[in-house]
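Quick one - first record:
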Amino acid sequence: MVRYRVLIPLFLSLFVWQGVADAASISTRVRVLESKVAKQDSKIKQSEYLRRAQDSKIDKSLAKVKVIEKKVDKLLKGEEGVERKSQRADKRYAFP
């Protein structure tokens, strides 16, 4: 009888401690996964910030290029006008 009084609580405590150990293991795994997710989240946010900064820089550069293209077009049109004027001047002195 004394054996059963000792063995039954020992056996039950074994199951209880096994449950506690499983819960602690799960808790540890969850904490590890949460830290990994937090690190990945910070990396994603940082890369998103860098991508947005790069996009805005690209947009500004494209705007500058468009302005330069417009200036070049104006200059080309101006040169065509000068050429036409010089051709007109040459025609004035042409022989009838």
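second record:
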Amino acid sequence: MRHYLGVAKEKGIAMEAVREVLAVALVVSGGRVRAQARDALKELLDSPPTGEPKGCCHD
């Protein structure tokens, strides 16, 4: 990361532009993690509990 920030500074890219790009990258990354967590939670909630025997008397 330091390398890229150094190159941006050498090229004269404004720090405001760098901050905007970093903010977008964090949002995108956070959205991906949120989607993965949502999918994992959905699978967990949709699957039957593992401790119950199959073929319950209430079937």
